[in-house]
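Session log. Operator J.P. requested a structure for one protein chain; no other inputs attached. Running the standard single-chain path with token output.
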Amino acid sequence: MTTFPRAIAADERLVRARDMMEENHVRYLPVTRAGRLASVISAVEVERALESRQGQAAGLKVGDACAHDAYTVDVATPLDEVLVEMARRQVDCALVVKEGRLAGIFTTTDACRALADLLREIFPVAGGGDAA
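Structure written below.
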């Protein structure tokens, strides 16, 4: 999980979201509306929106490109529940909150890391083998 991720307001320019993602090397930004956590936008959504409206790109807002509600979980939610729900919803990330405030973002990359750690724990490789 990436803790305390940067967020962007829905009324900010979409090019600002792209710049923030590039500057911070992230693929997702939580989106706020009226100061409250509302959604999430991905780098893919940003690029798609900017490409589809090339002539209007400068005026596009973050809210124009992220129509869906974000999957939000409490920081105490068990990981297996988060993973099952992400798969059921077919989403790439979950916004993690503590006492209603954004605490982090959990992505499919984080899920892969957790699975790899678990597999290493269950199936330790004796002698440092290089099997796939």
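Operator note: The chain has a mean pLDDT of 89.
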